[in-house]
Amino acid sequence: MTDTPQVAAANKVKLVKTQAQVPLTLPVKAIDDKGELVDKFVACERPLTVYLNWRPIVTLMTLGAKPESLTLGYLKNQGFISDLNLLESVIVDWDVNSAAVISKETSDDIEEKLSEKTVTSGCGQGTVYGGLMQGLDDISLPTPSIKQSLIYQLLKNINAYNDTYKNAGAVHGCGICQDDQILAFVEDVGRHNAVDTLAGDMWLEQQAGADKIFYTTGRLTSEMVIKVAKMGIPILLSRSGVTQMGLELAQKLGITLIARAKGRHFLVYHGAETIEFDCLAKD
């Protein structure tokens, strides 16, 4: 169902934007290892076909938590849109599983972008287009500074989130953090959906990323590193591991890459010089 469109303001930009709501989990019956019937929940998964000026771009499989931000973040990260001032509307209709974005931005090269398709190592099979790699040479990230003790506190604070995962599992979570506080947290069936949603939120709200930390439960692939760099965030923290190309891009772009982070353990794959190890004497 499409909710009533609202006018959202990003600085002075007026954008007609729905706030389409759908259930994130559904109750089901299961048999446990004792052979007993138990009440459980499963995470929802639904298709969302993204249209740009009525041209179909991609169908995303998503939890559906914030479909408008997901749609805008995906299109921006893939290089299909870039000018917030030229956006007119983003309308989500769950009756037909669609998200339609209208923009005045010229998209003469849309067919060329769509032809440069790559199947990625995302959850299941992800797809990226040629525009994802555009502008990487223009990215200049600040050199961050972070304390070991702050990483520990942030990981502890993250435990208060992951509501859908705790309830039903089967999802990834991503968060925008500042110091040890979580400013925003999104869960989805794919980690790239979650990062695109946060990217869409940051873009609409014109938030700077220089003083932020990006947290994800997913592995740090090349695509994840690129998207975080485009958000202007210099620190990437993950509960999972790192791929070779993800590491190479972090080294090129100057991202502090921290992985296998859980409890009081983590591995710094790049940017160790930006971390103050202030808890060594306590361990």
TrEMBL record:
UniProt xrefs under Gene3D superfamilies: 3.10.20.10, Cytidine Deaminase, domain 2
GO biological process: Mo-molybdopterin cofactor biosynthetic process
Keywords associated with the record: Cytoplasm, Molybdenum cofactor biosynthesis, Transferase
This protein's record includes keyword Cytoplasm: yes
One MF term in the entry's GO annotations: sulfur carrier activity
Matches recorded under Pfam families: FdhD-NarQ
Broad class of where this protein is predominantly found: cytoplasm
Keyword set includes rRNA processing: no
Recorded family membership: Belongs to the FdhD family.
Function noted in UniProt: Required for formate dehydrogenase (FDH) activity. Acts as a sulfur carrier protein that transfers sulfur from IscS to the molybdenum cofactor prior to its insertion into FDH.
Family annotation (PANTHER family): FORMATE DEHYDROGENASE (PTHR30592), SULFUR CARRIER PROTEIN FDHD (PTHR30592:SF4)
Protein name: Sulfur carrier protein FdhD
Gene: fdhD
